Amino acid sequence: MTFLSRFTAFSSLKLLVLSVLMAVSLPIMAMTLQQAMAALPNAKTQGLVGEQLNGYLGVINANSEADTIAKLINDARRAEYTRLAKDNNIAVADVEALAGQKAIERTQRGHFILLEGKWVQKR
């Protein structure tokens, strides 16, 4: 076996091992909804995410953690709003608006809310 063929075989093996490690580690690195819910208070305190009148979280200072938290929680909220709308025979938009209003009301002082297109800290 020549040096070049051994090098190519070794490189292929390294690539295969690296691919397997990535495939196994991705689910471990992924954030779950429960982890996102646990991280939400801290993300709000840090000013990464805030509540919107449409019933969903908005990302204020984008980073991968804020984006993931908002996506996971918003997906869960959307599913719940859809279920509530169906169960009560009302429009999803009505559920979203009511949920948004309640979320804004319940937002702690110092956390961010989106009002008239601007992120402001609730007083």
UniProtKB/TrEMBL annotation:
Which Pfam family is an annotated match for this chain, by its short name? DUF1318
Keyword annotations for this protein?
Answer: Signal
Q: Record's InterPro entries?
A: YdbL
Segment forming the signal sequence: 1-30
Q: Which domain of life is it from?
A: Bacteria
> What name does this protein carry?
YdbL family protein
Origin species, per record, is Alishewanella maricola
